[in-house]
């Protein structure tokens, strides 16, 4: 077995991002192993979205390193990290509002397929997984916010990623849709590692195999859901206990 296969899928060392005088992400050491569903939680402004931006290559770091699949990707742009198997959805939707759901997902499938073969089947399969196949011909901009988040996940899945990063995916979903989302993530975890930024603690506690807590840009705690729930520092900083 190679080091890359047995070690972490994703690793950061001293990862830091400053915005002027503010340190949004402060020397974070982080390891994510293949097959995990990892939740990243923390109060508003803790640095979660910035951290994920550093992982994906959307935001350059001030200091520190990112390794993906055993390779140092710190200097690689976002598209090169995507080509290596990282997919992500953002809080700010990346959906093309004027295109149909089908065309949005087909664009993501096309990035992976050298020739167009199988495009329609793969596109419909990705939409089906998030429960939107019946709306394939609708215009994406007409969807509710929550359904646009699901469409983004379909676009991520269409890339057949090794790592799927989801930033607040359940925002705007109904209780019933959240149940469907949980089933989807468990299903995805059989083939991809999942990193989930999530404020809904019910979703976090029922899905995550491991939880990392960020507070003021630094890693406050890490452990399984039971350990995090019982952690006094986490209670003070986040759970309001
Ligand atoms: N482009 C930027 N310029 C200046 N400050 C920024 C920038 N992006 C983020 N920040 C600041 O960095 C800190 C961390 O923000 P970030 O959005 O990463 O937190 P978060 O944990 O994702 O918060 P939330 O849960 O509210 O989404 C905040 O104080 C924020 O105001």
TrEMBL record:
Gene3D superfamilies the UniProt entry points to: P-loop containing nucleotide triphosphate hydrolases (3.40.50.300)
CDD domains referenced in this protein's UniProt entry, alphabetically: ABC_Mj1267_LivG_branched
SUPFAM superfamilies: P-loop containing nucleoside triphosphate hydrolases
Membrane spanning stretches: none
Gene Ontology cellular component list: plasma membrane
Pfam family, one: ABC_tran
A molecular function GO annotation: ATP hydrolysis activity
SMART domains the UniProt entry points to: AAA
Name of protein: Amino acid/amide ABC transporter ATP-binding protein 1, HAAT family
Organism, as annotated: Albimonas donghaensis
Organism classification: Bacteria, Pseudomonadati, Pseudomonadota, Alphaproteobacteria, Rhodobacterales
